[in-house]
Structure formats: structure tokens, C-alpha cells
TrEMBL record, chain A:
CDD domains: cupin_ChrR (cd20301). It comes from Hoeflea poritis. Residues 110-202 form the ChrR-like cupin domain. Residues 77-98 are annotated as: Disordered. InterPro entries: Anti-sigma_ChrR, Anti_sigma_zinc_sf, ChrR-like_cupin_dom, RmlC-like_jellyroll, RmlC_Cupin_sf. This is ChrR family anti-sigma-E factor. Coiled coil: none annotated. SUPFAM superfamilies: RmlC-like cupins. It comes from the Bacteria. Transmembrane segments: none annotated. Pfam families: Cupin_7.
Automatic annotation (TrEMBL), chain B:
It comes from the Bacteria. The keyword DNA-binding applies. Pfam families: Sigma70_r2 (PF04542), Sigma70_r4 (PF04545). Residues 1-21 are annotated as: Disordered. Residues 42-108, 144-193 form the RNA polymerase sigma-70 region domain. This is Sigma-70 family RNA polymerase sigma factor. The lineage of its organism: Bacteria, Pseudomonadati, Pseudomonadota, Alphaproteobacteria, Hyphomicrobiales. InterPro entries: RNA_pol_sigma-70-like, RNA_pol_sigma-70_dom, RNA_pol_sigma70_r2, RNA_pol_sigma70_r4, RNA_pol_sigma_r2, RNA_pol_sigma_r3/r4-like, WH-like_DNA-bd_sf.
Amino acid sequence: MSIHHHLDAASLMRYAAGDLDPAFAVVVASHIAMCDECRQAVRLAEAVGGACLSDMPEAALSDGSFTRLSRMIDAAPDTATKRRPVEATPANDPDGDVPLPLSSLIGGSLDDVPWRLVVPGVYRHKIELADTSSSLFMLKIGSGRKMPEHGHGGTEMTLILRGSYSDSMGRFGPGDVADLDEHVEHQPVVDSDDPCICLVATEEPTRFKGIVSRLMQPLVGI
Amino acid sequence: MLKVLRMEETTEDPGPNTDQARHEALITAVADNRDKSAFESLFVRFGPRIKGMMLGSGAGEDLAEDLMQEVMLTVWRKAALYAPERGSVSTWIFTIARNARIDRLRRQPVQPFVDVETVSIASDAPSAESEMIAGQHGEIVRAALQKLPQEQRDVIDLAFNQFMPQSEIAKKLNLPIGTVKSRTRLAYKKLKENLEDLR
Ligand SMILES: [Zn+2]
């Protein structure tokens, strides 16, 4: 897979520090699962955490802390994880186009997604997540169509899984991620023969939305 | 051999790379021999620091202690999954602490992180070179962090030492969120350049 559009460094660092909202964490994790370059990059970001941990001042532990942990270990059967042989996973299955972090949520095939028609040529599947103020959904958009406007005023992140689209920032194909700040205006148009399927996280469009877009919202269902 | 390693634990500021070599030997002893005293050395080294992070992130005394114990229990159980080619022991333990905290304090699923780990295990072939690089990583990243301009260092410290969300960092430092983002980006870029220079 040749990937041309990667995660923003700020997103990698937030992922590494555990600061991403669940919806965005799923998109980031899915891209990382598909992209060797960002998998290396997130390791550097996590190494920042490792260095911070090494340099952390020590806090006082409670009395007998190790003894207690030691007893816990002795009392339970040893459930040590064995070194695992390399196995085929959905993510490194060459024919699969659902990365593992997404297949945990929707299953292993893009053909089995329960799509709901929102406007002609545009299908949507909302993925329910607990404890999030953002939304995570999948879009399937027909060839030649514009992506619906969504979530302007907030950050959004789009990962292409199948097909492609183009906008002012270039062409986005499978594995590419558009990691956008709130100020970016863009109007992607699907340019693949087959529909473009992507995974999108947006900050919930609430107070930022004007009255006109609030009226438009039910139409697009986003 | 382990006795010697543990005696070194008390010396101040050992030279580059020795921390990682010592920690790796301890993890291997835990994974292969279920060596309790090797585990205790890791506990002595990392337990108080993990607890410090949890306290800094707003957990109370009991919760911080409890989370620290949970993290160290995971280290004991999953020692065999530590892969030197993916980073230093302290980085691996940091990710366990991060995940434990997300799981407990933020009540969020850590599944995406676990899945990425699984993908890494399946797709990264270890090599002598990558192992060497990761071994040096720890010390080099520590050195590179020291060299960051203070304003970038502050943002990194709050995000990683205290697990502070970006929005709270912005509030605390009285900065627009865009500035926090760009400082984070610059810090990452600088760290990457430093690592490439030192390699
Ligand atoms: Zn990437």
C-alpha cells in the first residue's frame, strides 16, 4: 500500500500520551495499523513518554507495597503471556481492507457494513462509542459525488479505506488520512470508479454551528 | 549476574545505554525464569515513578497506588511481550501505564491501543539494527528532551508527565490551543532531528 497522506505530529503525540478522544483514537490507531511510517513515528512519540517516566521524581509508595503485589502474584495462577508466534491478523491480511482497530468495531469486511442512505449516492454508518463527545462514522460515497459537509468548526480526521477522492490538498486513496485542523476548507470529490469508503471522526458539531448548518444537519444526518 | 545488576541499580547516573541494558536483562529474567527478585528490581525502579505520574494526573493517593500495582502486575504477566526492537523498557512500561489510566480514569476502551500492539507484533520483523536503535532510543530521547526550548518542554511535560489534555494545557499556560499544537509539533520535529543526528 502506498500511503501519501499521514498523521499530523500533534495527533501522534496526543495518541501517545493517551489524550485523544475515543473516536479520534480509533481513526489514528487504524491508520497506524496500515502505515509502517506512522507506526515508527508513534514509537518515537511513545519514547517521549518513556523518557518522561525515567526522569519522573519518585513518589512514596504505601507501606509493604511490593509485599502486597508479591502476594497477589503468588495467590493467582500464573497467567503469564507466552511469546506469540507471528500470526495472520485482519490487519496484515493482504486482501483485507479493514484495519484491526476498526474490525474490532464493525467486523472484518467492508461489504457487511449496515449502510443507511442519507442522500442519493451517500451512505452512512454511525459507530456508537461510549464516553465520547465526538462522533465516529463511516461514509460510502458514489463516484463523482462531493463529500457532504460535516463538522466544520471542529477538528476532523478522515481515513480512506477503499476508492479515492481529490480535493485542494491532493488525492486520497486507501490508507491515506486527512488530519485536518478546524480552519481548513475543503470540498472533496470522489474520483474513483467505485464508491469511496472512509472512516471519519469529527468533534460533535455543537455550539460552533450556525443556524443554517443546523437546519441542514438533519438532511445529511451527520 | 543478576546480583551484580542489582548492585548497579544504586549507582548514580550510569553512562548512556546501561539503563536499558539492565532493564532488558531484568525483563528477560522475569519472562523466561519468572524471576521474582528481578521483578522486584523493576518494581523499585518504576513503581514510585509510575505512582508519581498518576498522582500528577490528578489521581488520589489510593487510586495512584492501586494503578501503579496494576501496571506492575501487567509487567509481570506480559514480560514476554516486551520487544526491544519497538522501544526501551521504560517506553513499554509507560504505554502500560497510559493504557491502565485510560481504562480506569477516563473509562474509555483501550482496545485501539491493544490492536495496534497486536499489529506491531505481527508485522514488525526484529533485526539486530532496529534492536540497537531502540536500545539507544531511551537515552537519546532523554538527552534530546533536555535540549528542547523551555516553552516546548513545558507542553511536553504536562502532556506526558501529568497526562494533561491539550485543552487543559492551553488553559494552564494561557495559550490558544493552536499554539499548544504547534509547540507539540515543533518538539516532535526537533526530537526526530536530534535522533537522526545522533544515529
Ligand atoms: Zn502514516
